[in-house]
Write a structure and sequence with these properties.
heterodimer, A: Heat Shock Protein 90, 6-stranded antiparallel β-sheet, about 35% helix, B: Transcription Regulator spoIIAA, 4 helices
């Protein structure tokens, strides 16, 4: 792990090419970091699932060939950034999915990524423009 | 058989599909293929055993919504067993568990479904 510019919090950085199932390599890293932070197995699994969904969104929608993931270990939380240099997106145009609407209709069954990330992490922020998208997610440390 | 499907068997009128590995789009498609074949043969009760699939993504799970939709037409049943905690949580967030039963074991599922 390297030190960030403040010289305090450990930072792990990954660069992932767009190849099938490569998001699982990010979850392996997340598991190691979660263990290092003594996060519960439940929180670790939630981080991994949110990471999978964020990676898939970036792979599918950014139209780039690689994405970057930063894990920032802070005293009170883990911050995970999923960064792409792609075309960006307008989050306000993404509909909140609802299974009742998806059943017995022609509506596509997919489109759950943002909802899952929102429910699984403690906070999520999206910064997106025509030069790319950064998803910043946090998970608080367990109370000791 | 796909690498994502470990086993398919019928017990007491219930088709048990055991999955393996990362439940992604390929695994979802593999389950859909088995389901379609068995449904065309008249089966309407399905149990998916995910003991060996502890990691999922929403694309794979979305394909299960297609299966639920098809089963509703014939008053069929879709159930799951041996779900990892995060998989069950994902199913809850997506609303899958409103339309499917979740059981702790294959035996307890068969007891209810048969």
């Amino acid at each position: 792990m390297s030190k960030n510019f403040m010289g305090k919090e450990p930072v792990v950085e990954l660069k992932l090419p767009v190849i099938p199932d490569i998001e699982l390599s990010a979850t392996k890293t997340a598991e190691v970091i979660s263990k290092h932070m003594n996060l519960s197995e439940e929180k670790s699994a939630e981080i991994s699932m949110a990471l999978i969904e964020s990676c898939i969104n970036a792979f599918e929608h950014s139209k780039t060939k690689e994405i970057f993931i930063h894990f920032i270990v802070e005293p009170d939380k883990l911050t995970v950034k999923v960064i792409d240099k792609g075309v960006g997106f307008d989050k306000s145009k993404v509909e909140i999915p609802n299974i009742e609407n998806k059943l017995n209709s022609d509506e596509r069954k997919r489109g759950w990524g943002l909802q899952l990330v929102s429910e699984l992490m403690d906070s999520v922020e999206y910064n997106s423009d025509e030069s790319g998208t950064t998803v910043t997610m946090t998970k608080k440390r367990d109370n000791e | 058989m796909s690498d994502s499907i470990k086993n398919v068997e019928e017990k007491d009128g219930v088709i048990i599909i055991s999955t393996a590995g990362y439940f992604n789009n390929l695994a979802g498609e593999a389950v859909l293929e088995v389901f379609t074949e068995k449904m065309e043969s008249g089966s309407t009760k399905f149990l998916v055993d995910m003991n060996d699939s502890k990691v999922v993504n929403s694309i794979g799970v979305s394909i299960l919504i297609e299966i639920i939709e098809k089963l509703q037409v014939v008053n069929g049943v879709m159930a799951f067993t041996n779900l990892a905690g995060i998989v069950e949580k994902t199913f809850n967030i997506m609303g899958i568990t409103k339309y499917c039963e979740v059981y702790d074991s294959v035996d307890s599922a068969l007891e209810k479904l048969s």
